[in-house]
């Protein structure tokens, strides 16, 4: 079964000057449950735009996105909120941790919106931080963690609500090569062991190496 399918997906931006930019043009992608997929291409190729539309952070100009067989209704805010709370987790290049919260609190935060009890939040967050090998850093603020450690917290946070799909936008882009490789291997291990689908927009050859499928884009169109 496909966890994600796009059909003739296009995204255009029109500026006040009248100039129109085609970020995506009739993109058709299928991602199976449990797959690790890398979107690759140069800056401006459309890979982040495609990721954001699949993640319901942006909406297409035309075409459709199906998640677990159901078409995404971008006009229905409650539908999008349910997807964000129950189905999709996010990992960002800039980590996007809340600076005033420690690692444990950052991982607990998404669970609050699903009305999970505080004790259950702490238990799951502790388990997830152990999973990403940060069990001894749970009370540290983001400013007290290295870049690699912050990204591990971000991965744990993405897992908080048991998503079936994790979307990651350049998750190793702010990390050195050694740390980036560790984060890549961690994501692949989680994908393999927990059967969670990963879709990663990246420039990293290492990320492409571990992927089950590589989707290449150029100027908004698929090249493979």
Automatic annotation (TrEMBL):
The keyword Nucleotide-binding applies. Pfam families: ABC_tran. Keywords: ATP-binding, Nucleotide-binding, Transport. Residues 4-224 form the ABC transporter domain. SUPFAM superfamilies: P-loop containing nucleoside triphosphate hydrolases. InterPro entries: AAA+_ATPase, ABC_transporter-like_ATP-bd, ABC_transporter-like_CS, ABC_transpr_LolD-like, MacB-like_ATP-bd, P-loop_NTPase. One of its GO terms (cellular component) is membrane protein complex. One of its GO terms (molecular function) is ATP binding. It comes from the Archaea. The keyword Iron-sulfur does not apply. PANTHER family: ABC TRANSPORTER ABCH.1 (PTHR24220:SF86), IMPORT ATP-BINDING PROTEIN (PTHR24220). This is ABC transporter, ATP-binding protein. It comes from Methanosarcina barkeri 3.
